[in-house]
Every structure is written in C-alpha cells, then in structure tokens.
Amino acid sequence: MWIYEKKLQYPVRVSKCDPRMAKFLAEQYGGADGELAAALRYLNQRYTIPDQVIGLLTDIGTEEFAHLEMIATMIYKLTKDATPKQLEEAGLGAHFASHDSALFYNNAAGVPWTAAYIQAKGDPLADLYEDIAAEEKARATYQWLIDMTDDVDLQDSLKFLREREVVHAMRFKEAVQLIVDDREQKKVY
Amino acid sequence: MSTQTLDEQYYAQLLQLQQYDFALVELTLFLDTHPNDMQALQQFNQLAQQRRQCAQQFEQQYGPLLQFGQSYSRYPWQWAQQPWPWQV
C-alpha cells in the first residue's frame, strides 16, 4: 500500500502569476514523458520484472508521484490568481471553458493523457530501455521548460526535477547491467 | 494548524526534513542497485534514525505528516487541517 506524506519532496516557489508557463508545464503533468506516465509505467512493469529490479521500480515509481505533486503545485501557484481573460490570453481559454482553474491530466497542447503513452512488454530489457528513454526525454523537456522562463524560483524547482531524471536514468542503466550479468552467470553454470 | 501563522522556523524545519529525505531517497535508489555496499547502508541507517527525530520534532509543532495511524494527532483531528503542501 501507499502512505501519503503531507509535504513536498522539494520546495516549490514561484515569483509571479504566469498562466503561460503553467500551460507548458502540463507537458510534465499529463504528457507522454511526464510524471504521471512515469509513475504508472514503472509501478505497472514491476509485477513481471526480475526480482532484483522490483525494489528499484517501486521506489522510482513512488518518487514520480512526489514529482507529480511538485508539478501540480507549480501549475496551481502559477494560475491561482489569474483572471479568465489572463488564462485565455495565455492559451488556456479552452482549458478554462472545460475545467475552470482545475488541473487536468493533459499535455501542453491540451491532449488528454492516455495509457497508449506507456508500455509493458514483459521483456525486462525492453521495459528498462523504455524507462531509460522516458527519463532522458523528461530530462530534455525540463531543460526546455527551464529555458522558457525567467522566474528563478520556478527554475530552481525545475532544475531539481531535471537532475532526478539523470539519476533515475543512471539507476535504470545499472538495472540493465544487473539483469545482463545475471543471465551470463546462469549460462556459465 | 490553520490558525497558526507559518513563520520562518516552519520553512527552516521543513527544509531540514526535505534535506534528510533527499539524502535518503538517493541512498535508497543507490542501494537498490548496490545492495552489498556496506558504507552506503551504514549511512542509510544512520540518516534514517536522524530523520525520524527531525520528523518527530516537526510533527509536534506543525501537526502530522503521515496518516492511517503512522502519525499521532492532537484534538481536534489535525490531519485534515491546512496547510496542504501546495498551499505553503
């Protein structure tokens, strides 16, 4: 089971109301390489991955939910004081018409999240290579997001998330090696 | 907690807890792929103990961090009180 902890993994501060950035940040909320997709991808793959990698998928999948909450906090803080007119000017008119200021799992272009974004092949190497690619794509997205804002407070939180993608990719690469080593050892005996 | 004004100390204590948790998340993921690293394991257990004390202090002052019985509550029920993480 899971226990919720009433705190963010890392502080999220924003220095201004900025619905334009909120719209772009949705890419990491409900996008193909976003935090929701990451959490659901890993936590679903773990049931059929070799035993020595289950712990890693469980822990990274869980951490992704903490990142999802950080992104949600950014979007919430960037839009909570925006008027409908400001939302419309930021390209969020269609969002407002359907959701008011509520968050929704869609990407930056407004396309709703779909399970088609994620895969589970049952083949451990195929799954782990997808996971490594997902982390690298998310890292790239965070870099573009950092480049798109001059809000240093927001940049600080985004840089933390970008670095987490780097660490996750590294751990997944080690997991690939653990499985490869294990297979070679089995061949010897 | 809702009537309590969040002072500088709240943010400082929260940050300290987040710093412990950062080290512990890092060590957790590292140990997941390096289960035989004794030094990392010792660091993990040591920090886990310090983290527990830090969390206990925070909870005494600002209310429960966990629920389903993982944290205590004063009267009236503190869990559902503000602030939630995105409100600070």
UniProtKB/TrEMBL annotation, chain A:
<feature type="binding site">
    <location>
        <position position="35"/>
    </location>
    <ligand>
        <name>Mn(2+)</name>
    </ligand>
</feature>
<comment type="similarity">
    <text>Belongs to the manganese catalase family.</text>
</comment>
<dbReference type="InterPro" id="IPR007760">
    <property type="entry name" value="Mn_catalase"/>
</dbReference>
<protein>
    <submittedName>
        <fullName>Manganese catalase family protein</fullName>
    </submittedName>
</protein>
<feature type="binding site">
    <location>
        <position position="168"/>
    </location>
    <ligand>
        <name>Mn(2+)</name>
    </ligand>
</feature>
<dbReference type="InterPro" id="IPR009078">
    <property type="entry name" value="Ferritin-like_SF"/>
</dbReference>
<dbReference type="InterPro" id="IPR039377">
    <property type="entry name" value="Mn_catalase_dom"/>
</dbReference>
<feature type="binding site">
    <location>
        <position position="135"/>
    </location>
    <ligand>
        <name>Mn(2+)</name>
    </ligand>
</feature>
<dbReference type="GO" id="GO:0046872">
    <property type="term" value="F:metal ion binding"/>
</dbReference>
<feature type="binding site">
    <location>
        <position position="64"/>
    </location>
    <ligand>
        <name>Mn(2+)</name>
    </ligand>
</feature>
<feature type="binding site">
    <location>
        <position position="67"/>
    </location>
    <ligand>
        <name>Mn(2+)</name>
    </ligand>
</feature>
<keyword id="KW-0464">Manganese</keyword>
<feature type="binding site">
    <location>
        <position position="59"/>
    </location>
    <ligand>
        <name>Ca(2+)</name>
    </ligand>
</feature>
<dbReference type="InterPro" id="IPR012347">
    <property type="entry name" value="Ferritin-like"/>
</dbReference>
<dbReference type="Pfam" id="PF05067">
    <property type="entry name" value="Mn_catalase"/>
</dbReference>
<keyword id="KW-0479">Metal-binding</keyword>
<keyword id="KW-0106">Calcium</keyword>
Automatic annotation (TrEMBL), chain B:
<feature type="domain" description="Protein CotJB">
    <location>
        <begin position="13"/>
        <end position="87"/>
    </location>
</feature>
<keyword id="KW-0946">Virion</keyword>
<dbReference type="InterPro" id="IPR016571">
    <property type="entry name" value="Spore_coat_assembly_CotJB"/>
</dbReference>
<protein>
    <submittedName>
        <fullName>Spore coat protein CotJB</fullName>
    </submittedName>
</protein>
<dbReference type="Pfam" id="PF12652">
    <property type="entry name" value="CotJB"/>
</dbReference>
<keyword id="KW-0167">Capsid protein</keyword>
<dbReference type="InterPro" id="IPR024207">
    <property type="entry name" value="CotJB_dom"/>
</dbReference>
